[in-house]
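Quick log. Single chain, no ligands specified.
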Amino acid sequence: MGYLLILLAVSLAVSAIGWKYFIYFFSLGYGFGIAALAVALLVIFRDVLTVETVLLCAAMFIFGCRLGGYLLYRQQKSKSYRKILYDPSISQKDHSVGAIFAIWIFCALLYVGQVSPVAFRLASMRDGSPVTTTWAWIGLAIIVCGTLLEAGADIQKSAAKKVNSRRFVDKGLYSVVRCPNYLGELVIWTGSLLSAIGAGLSPGQWIIAAIGYAGIVYVMFSGARRLELRQTETYGSDPEFQSYVKKTPLLLPFIPIYSLAKYKWLQA
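-> predicted structure:
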């Protein structure tokens, strides 16, 4: 599994941007890290690429570049986002070198785990194992849907904030769930995991893929909880907001989970 070490090295190199500012481990390092890993897969397995695997890598590359580019643009244009980004409570000063190093390693491993289903499919093809393509196409379609969902949520929120920057967003996708961008992420990485079906993965490979998936699910739920707490602090006294949060699920549509605030174990 030498290719996993190469992917880890790529992930460590890109996510090292977090040493500049702590939150970059989870933002710019995440988006551009996934994009870099997609390119690395294309290079490492260039001798066995097929249409569906190229498109899987391309979909992850587009996702990563879009997310990283959007976060970079928002950082430059939004004063409120910069206020959150440079919040002293999440600065380097409040973390030891050992803690920062541990987060760096965790993020790098997580990002490799997220793309590992596609990597394992390609590795099986290189080894000559029997591989079917049906789930690769299904996974690709799900990834595309998730990317469109996440991008659409970001576009709708940006448009709403231009109209009234002081009001919470509850229209469009935000009328279905309060964190549609995080839902998009869950859809994307569900597609990635499903793309490994029919690729002859070993039990160990499935464990790695499952850990990567579980990790990003935890991060998304943790992020949704942080957003809930922040919005409650900002809009909690607004009767319209109180009505909105009581009838709109936080993250998963049609599943009545309206709050994660009490689950402190989701703090990350």
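The chain has a mean pLDDT of 93.
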